[in-house]
From TrEMBL, chain A:
Domain of life (superkingdom): Eukaryota
Any Gene Ontology biological process: response to UV
Domain DNA repair protein rhp7 treble clef: 104-142
Originating species: Lipomyces starkeyi NRRL Y-11557
PANTHER family given in the database record: PARTNER OF PAIRED, ISOFORM B-RELATED
Start and end residues of each stretch annotated as Disordered: 38-99
InterPro entries in UniProt: Leu-rich_rpt_Cys-con_subtyp, LRR_dom_sf, Znf_Tbcl_Rhp7
Polar residues bias spans: 38-48
GO cellular component, one term: nucleotide-excision repair factor 4 complex
Protein's UniProt name: DNA repair protein rhp7 treble clef domain-containing protein
From TrEMBL, chain B:
SKP1 component POZ domain boundaries: 16-78
Biological processes, Gene Ontology terms: global genome nucleotide-excision repair; response to UV; ubiquitin-dependent protein catabolic process
GO cellular component, as recorded: Cul3-RING ubiquitin ligase complex; elongin complex; nucleotide-excision repair factor 4 complex
Cell compartments where the protein resides: Nucleus
Biological source species: Lipomyces starkeyi NRRL Y-11557
Full protein name: Elongin-C
Transmembrane stretches, start-end: none
Alphabetical keyword list: Nucleus
KW Zinc (keyword) present: no
From TrEMBL, chain C:
Identification of the protein by name: Cullin family profile domain-containing protein
SMART domains per record: CULLIN, Cullin_Nedd8
Alphabetical list of PANTHER family matching this protein: CULLIN
Family membership: Belongs to the cullin family.
Length: 555, 117, 800
């Protein structure tokens, strides 16, 4: 049976998930082991007599049947397994029951009302397992059982819906009337002729829902366009044709800020049109516009680059050195925020071009692994570091402690938002030394060290010591090495603004830590705890704090 | 709509009166009205505005039909706010969805003020 | 599920009553008028709904930015008006004179320079604070109302653009246009008034704290724009407050150190600390408390404390000698505040103890050197007296400091360590401490504790143990204790077996099992000997019923007892034949039972009861074994015959020193002159002749003739040297053993580590010095227990 016992070292190909779990020390053996342990515990803690055994197997049967019903949608394999399991226990129970049970046709006394009755094959066993029930008591009992099962299912359903809501990061409360209306509007969006004065905020919400439903289409787009509008954000433009995208500029000439995500149909022609028509545009975010050519970007910047304050680009391979040269040539006097993410066409020799953007306060160069090196970024920070408020270099694996100690620490006095997710080149001591007595900086508001796997207690404790008074968002997802000491420090550090905290997959965190944290950090609103197996539904979390990803929530 | 026409007394602190643009008047529980941040602000005894003194709010930008739906929602929210787990859906007729959106936006007040104090 | 195309419903667009463009100015006029009404407290005439809707519509029609800015302009203007019409006139009448130093030529100031009476001026200050506070309250109330009607803007505009919400913006406006008004700095006035009030209170006046408290609360709720927790209080007021406090306390420190003695100084310092604490808590901010406390501590304590402690007239020494416990308590409390290590206090205490201890040592040595002959004190007695005096005085000192530690310093661990170090240092300065202590115990166990209850006895022993703890060379003590104990046991001089055992138990608890095994072995030997004697007596009754001489033997395990007892050659003795016979009989009896054991006789530790017929009557004499042997010689002599020293020596082979001592006790000591010596002199000479004193008389039938050596006093110099040699030898063995033990376990070790480990192992017995260890390591190398490593000369390897 057991392959592992055979000692074979041959392993078949692994799925990414298996690999991922193994990295975190989760494997089938460990799970089985834990399961067996709990079984054993249960066995030792309930050395019951024979009579109660049959009783308890009856209740467990009803539970497991229930389970089958509720997990019907899950994979058939798991269904089979549960079924088999409870068949086994059925056999046992049946056997026991058969040994003590009177045969059909015999006369017996009802366990409930003590009346005489004839035993049939359908006679029910009394609740406590002692004796059988007469027909009338039996049917009453069956009714109750049904009712019970029903409430069980409904409470399960309720739990599920809570979990679903939590996953969406929604407040779990009575839905707001606006949201109810917006949902209806989004659903019937095809029937809407004009949205009217519903407020930018609501308009954006509707746009967001449409994006999620993939129902932002050429016809519905027009509802959001009007000549006075200054800001537009569309999160899913995959169904918008290039003509429609052009319409945005012709309908809304006053646009100042434009965000278009997943705009795969965006072409050079549209961007050229924008640059002639959107005279007030100062903030542009394009995600997924992979058709736009390098030459087009050059034209764009030459035309209206001098008014851009914010430019953000993600997921393209065509934004190259020439485009960037045009950007710095035209935008150096105005550009304050620049974000380039997954722009694979830029190389590390292009990074020094950014030295010509002296007004930058926010810089993101994320998911461009090969383009980011210590020396380039240090040179860059020497010039722009003193003004930077936001710095995001996610997934820059080549960065080392040198970057932190010679770039961030000496130059970034104003830095408030620092995101270094997936940067596994930093060591615990390196990160610690940045924050230790870093009086030059007044504290971070938003810090992201998720999946910096070589970082540990000393680093994060130094961060807490340095920024406890200012931190609002802290992401420590998958910083495995952390121990409870760090979370105790966090709880005792009087972080009065900390409102979001992610410590998913940090295994040391358990119920106790989460209770103390929510108790002591007054502003805490959201905790993400995916993969924290030690956090259970028993944790007493202060009201008003949302906890996402608890295993118990997804049952 | 629980039209409590009998309680005419405007001094009755338990009920407040909402008046629509077309003159319909609804008397609803104060606690239901307090679901709306805007109404709560208007009726709050600590502020000194005319509405608070008269226990009566005139809403010239909301029609009777809409206001009735609004009141229905206020009660719906009041009833379920302590047990939000499994509640029936609140029906919003598509034809009034846009108008209702505007009205509810108007009445929402500050963010997150749905819950009673 | 529900396809939207199926049921076509027409969705009514919202019909906005105010559809089309709104006129911003008209709407703003409505709102600004309303705001004015609110400031005039006329809100009850306003319709919330109308105002809210007006603002709502403006925001919906994208006028939010204008609305936000208009609101700010309006409020700013209103506040500036308030300052110039309400606050400035009030201030110029009352607070100018306070401000001459703080404000240089501001708009409204410096016209009235008439100095008002101090009281008026101060009342005016409070009035000004109250006026500002009233404006503040009004402003907050209005901001609450305005933020209510502009709620929609907060939600969709301010939050979206992350601008301060209306209410917060309103507070910031108050900060910038009232407190930090560039024409009339209300803030500077406020700060000066509060500082003035604080100065008054520090000088002993009573001030109106409620007005100040309210003002401070206001300053604390005005935050700075950056979110770093800074407020107007912490940014603007607190630094001024701290600066003025530094000035005050610098002067105060000078003043107090000039005017007060140490005791007064401490009292006033505590009072100041308490005052500042209460002030911070009651009407300033809690956040200022640690800062102001630090200022007081730095000035009054840190800067000046050494001189307070060291003051000759009233400092630490004075407090200790005069039992000024309250002062000591204060001293400790204050010292602990500024320095968790309490370095100054500890070093002063140590210096004082070592000084006092040195005096005690000096006194004891004086007694030794110059015994008070007039009181009949012999040299040896003098040593005992010195030992007693020394032990009692050290214990007395120790008790005094324990008392100080527990009553005034919370039994502080660090202080306790310092006390221990100080005691240990001066106790071990006097090299006879082990001997003194052992003597003290010996005397108590022999007579001092007679008639005392068990508890009393235990108390005395406990005191001895306290001293014992300080002694570093515990092996020295062991040597002395063993000698003294041996004499007590063999001489039967111990007052109680129980008390002896109690002492052993206590020693065991202090230094462990190994230290007392030998001592316990001694007790065991005594018990086993008793059993053997019983058996032997029974045996004699059967084999030799005629025997007239009783003999009692103590069989001692040689390793358990002091070395002096087990060296064979020094205790030779030729016994009289009758004794020799009995001795043989016992030897046979014993060896029969315990084959393989060798018995060595120690006549120097024995004693004998003999009946002697003098001319007048018979007496029973209790003498030492040697004395008995000597006296027996005279049995065979005719009356009047004599023996020379040489003859006695030849007949008995008793070692010279023993012989001299015993002859001294038999022939020199006046009351026990059993022998007559010729010529009569104190010293025994080789040519002296001895004859039996037939005419000896005494009123007692039983007479104890003590041997000079048995009188247990402090050692003479030569004895001391012998003891030291023995101890040194033992130390060598112990060091060797430790080296081998460690090397066997570790196989290879560096020189320094080995020395460190050996020192560690030995330190419970004595304080080993590095030279000794090095010497022993060399010896071990020579004897090839260990070898030097070939590569590294600093490295040793163990040789199996």
């Amino acid at each position: 049976m057991s392959r592992n016992a055979g000692g074979s070292r041959v392993r078949g190909p692994n799925s990414a998930l298996t690999e991922f779990l193994r990295e975190r020390g989760i494997d089938a053996n460990a799970i089985r082991h834990r399961y067996e342990e709990t079984l054993q515990q249960q066995a030792t803690t309930s050395p019951d007599t024979v009579v109660t055994v049959s009783g308890s197997s009856a209740t467990s049967r009803s539970l497991s049947r229930d389970e089958v019903e509720t997990t019907v949608s899950s994979s058939s394999r798991s269904r089979k397994r549960t079924k088999k399991k409870h068949e086994d226990s059925d056999d046992e129970g049946e056997l026991l029951a058969r040994m003590t049970r009177p045969r059909p046709g015999q006369i017996d006394f009802c366990a409930e009302c003590q009346c005489r009755f004839t035993v049939t094959a359908y006679s029910k066993t009394a609740r406590d397992g002692n004796g059988l029930l007469c027909h009338s008591c039996g049917s009453k009992y069956a009714q109750e059982e049904k009712q019970q099962k029903k409430t069980q299912i409904s409470s399960r359903k309720r739990k599920k819906s809570i979990a679903a809501a939590l996953l969406d990061k929604q407040e779990f409360a009575v839905p707001k009337l606006q949201d109810l209306c917006i949902k209806v509007i989004a659903k019937y969006i095809e029937d809407v002729e004009i949205l009217g004065d519903i407020g930018d905020f609501n308009m954006e919400k509707i746009a967001r829902i449409l994006s999620r439903n993939r129902s932002l289409k050429d016809n519905t787009l027009k509802l959001f366009l009007n000549p006075s509008i200054k800001r537009l954000h569309f999160w899913d433009c995959s169904n918008l044709s290039s003509d429609s995208l052009e319409l945005i500029a012709s309908y809304c000439p006053l646009l100042e800020s434009l965000t278009l995500s997943m705009c795969g149909q965006m072409t050079d022609k549209v961007i050229d049109y924008y640059s002639t028509n959107l005279r007030n545009l100062h903030s542009l975010t394009i995600n997924g516009g992979f058709l736009i050519t390098s030459g087009c970007w050059v034209r764009f910047f030459d035309k209206i680059g001098s008014q851009l304050v914010r430019f953000s680009l993600a997921n393209t391979l065509r934004f190259n050195r020439e485009s960037l040269q045009a950007l710095v040539r035209n935008c150096s006097a105005t550009l304050e925020e620049l974000s380039l993410s997954r722009v694979g066409s830029l190389k590390n020799e292009d990074i020094p071009l950014l030295l010509q953007l002296p007004k930058l306060t926010a810089l993101e160069l994320s998911y461009m692994r090969d383009a980011i090196t210590d020396d380039d970024v240090i040179d860059l920070l020497r010039v722009i570091g003193p003004r930077l408020v936001t710095l995001n270099l996610d997934d820059s694996g080549d960065l080392t402690d040198k970057f932190l100690l010679e770039g961030v620490r000496p130059y970034c006095g104003r830095l408030q938002n620092l995101s270094l997710a997936l940067c596994d080149g930093f060591t615990d001591a390196g990160v610690r030394d940045v924050f230790k007595d870093w009086e030059f900086n007044n504290g971070l508001i938003n810090a992201n060290f998720s999946r910096c796997t070589n970082v540990g207690d000393e680093a994060i404790q130094a961060l807490i010591d340095h920024s406890a008074k200012t931190l609002v968002i802290l992401n420590l997802n998958s910083v495995y090495k952390l121990t409870t000491a760090t979370f105790q420090l966090l709880a005792s550090s009087d972080c009065e603004f900390l409102s979001q905290l992610d410590f998913g997959f940090v295994h040391c965190v358990g119920d106790e830590e989460i209770e103390v944290l929510t108790e002591r950090c007054k502003s805490l609103q959201l905790i993400e705890a995916y993969g924290n197996i030690r956090i259970t539904e028993l944790a007493k979390v202060k009201r008003g704090v949302k906890v996402l990803g608890r295993q118990s929530d997804s049952l | 709509m629980s039209g409590e026409n009998s309680s005419k007394d405007s001094g009755d602190k338990e009920y407040v009166r909402l008046v629509s643009s077309d003159g319909f008047e609804y008397s609803i529980l104060r606690s239901a009205a307090a679901v709306s941040g805007t109404l709560r602000g208007m009726l709050s005894q600590s502020s000194n505005f005319v509405e608070a003194k008269q226990n009566r709010v005139v809403l010239p930008n909301i029609s009777g039909v809409l206001l009735e739906k609004v009141c229905e929602y206020l009660y719906y929210n009041l009833k379920h706010q302590n047990n939000p787990g499994n509640i029936p859906e609140f029906d919003v007729p598509p034809e009034m969805a846009l108008e209702l959106l505007v009205a509810s936006d108007f009445l929402d007040g500050k963010d997150g003020s749905i819950r009673s104090e | 599920m529900m396809s939207s195309g199926k049921s076509r419903v027409k969705m009514r667009p919202p019909r906005n009553r105010d559809s089309g463009d709104v006129n911003f100015d008209d709407s703003w006029a409505v709102l600004s008028t309303a705001m004015q009404e609110m400031y005039r407290k006329n809100a009850s005439r306003l319709s919330y709904e109308e105002l809210y809707r007006t603002a709502y519509t403006l925001v919906l029609k994208k006028h939010a930015e204008r609305l936000y800015n208009s609101f700010k302009t309006f409020v700013a203007q209103h506040l500036r008006e308030i300052v110039s019409t309400e606050l400035a006139p009030l201030a110029s009448n009352t607070t100018n004179s306070l401000l001459t130093s703080t404000i240089g030529g501001g708009g409204v100031t410096s016209t009235i320079a008439v100095p008002l009476a101090a009281a008026d001026k101060r009342e005016g200050g409070i009035r000004f604070l109250k006026a500002v506070k009233a404006q503040w309250d009004d402003h907050c109330l209005c901001m609450r109302m305005i933020s209510d009607i502009l709620m929609y803007m907060d939600r969709v505009y301010c939050k979206e653009l992350q601008l301060p919400l209306i209410y917060d913006a309103g507070l910031a406006l108050f900060r910038d246009h009232v407190i930090r008004n560039n024409e009339f700095q209300v803030g500077e006035h406020i700060y000066a008034i509060i500082l003035d009030q604080i100065q008054l209170e520090r000088d002993g006046d009573i001030v109106d704290t409620s007005a100040i408290k309210a003002t401070v609360l206001m300053l604390e709720s005005l935050t700075e724009d950056k979110i770093d927790g800074e407020t107007v209080y912490s940014r603007s007021f607190e630094p001024k407050f701290l600066r003025s406090s530094v000035d005050f306390y610098t002067a105060e420190t000078d003043k107090l150190s000039r005017e007060c003695d140490s005791s007064q100084y401490l009292i006033k310092t505590e009072k100041r600390l308490q005052e500042e604490f209460e002030r911070a808590m009651s009407y300033l901010s809690m956040t200022s408390e640690p800062k102001i406390t630090k200022i007081v501590e730095e000035n009054l304590i840190t800067k000046n404390f050494v001189s307070v402690i060291k003051s000759d007239a009233s400092g630490l020494t004075y407090m200790i000698s005069n039992d000024r416990f309250d002062d000591l308590k204060r001293l400790y409390r204050l010292c602990k505040r500024v320095d968790p290590e309490k370095t100054d206090l500890r070093s002063a205490l140590m210096a004082r103890i070592i000084q006092q201890g040195g005096e005690i040592n000096q006194d004891a040595l004086e007694v030794l050197k110059h015994p008070d002959k007039s009181k009949g004190v012999t040299v040896q007695n003098a040593a005992t007296i010195a030992a007693f005096k020394w032990v009692e005085e050290v214990l007395g000192l120790k008790e005094k400091y324990d008392c100080i530690l527990n009553d005034t310093m919370d039994g502080d661990n660090q202080i306790q360590t310092s006390l221990t170090n100080a005691f240990s240092s001066f106790i071990n300065q006097i090299n006879r401490c082990s001997e003194f202590l052992s003597l003290f115990i010996d005397d108590n166990l022999k007579k001092g504790l007679k008639g005392k209850t068990e508890d009393e006895a235990e108390a005395v022993l406990d005191r001895a143990i306290t001293l014992f703890r300080y002694i570093t060379d515990k092996d020295m003590f062991e040597t002395y204790y063993k000698t003294h104990l041996a004499k007590r046991l063999l001489g039967g001089r111990s007052i109680s077996d129980d008390v002896e055992r109690m002492m052993i138990t206590k020693l065991k608890m202090e230094v462990g099992f190994s230290f007392t095994t030998k001592l316990e072995g001694m007790f065991k030997d005594m018990k086993v000997s008793n059993d053997i004697m019983q058996e032997y007596k029974a045996h004699v009754q059967i084999t030799d019923p005629e025997r007239t001489i009783d003999m009692s033997v103590s069989v001692l395990t040689s390793t358990n007892w002091p070395v002096s007892l087990s060296t064979i050659e020094s205790h030779t003795c030729v016994y009289p034949p009758e004794i020799e016979r009995i001795k043989r009989s016992f030897e046979k009896f014993y060896v029969d039972r315990h084959s393989g054991r060798v018995l060595t006789w120690n006549p120097n530790m024995g004693n004998a009861d003999i009946r002697v017929a003098f001319r007048k009557r018979k007496h029973e004499l209790n003498v030492s074994t040697y004395a008995m042997v000597i006296l027996m010689l005279f049995n065979d002599l005719a009356d009047g015959e004599s023996l020379t020293f040489e003859e006695i020596k030849a007949a008995t082979s008793i070692p010279d020193n023993e012989l001299i001592r015993n002859l001294q006790s038999l022939a020199v000591v006046p009351k026990t002159r059993i022998l007559i010596k010729q010529p009569m002199s104190k010293d025994i000479n080789v040519a002296d002749r001895f004859s039996f004193n037939l005419g000896f008389e005494s009123q007692y039938i039983r007479i104890k003739i003590p041997t000079v050596a048995y009188i247990n006093k402090t050692e003479t110099e030569t004895e001391r040297k012998g003891t030291m040699d023995k101890v040194d030898e033992l130390r060598r063995y112990q060091t060797d053993a430790a080296i081998v033990r460690i090397m066997k376990a570790r196989k290879s070790l560096e020189h320094n580590i080995l020395v460190a480990e050996v020192t560690g192992q030995l330190s419970s017995h004595f304080r080993p010095d590095a030279a000794l260890i090095k010497k022993r390591i060399d010896a071990m190398l020579e004897r090839e227990y260990i070898e030097r490593s070939a590569e590294n000369r600093q490295m040793y390897h163990y040789l199996a």
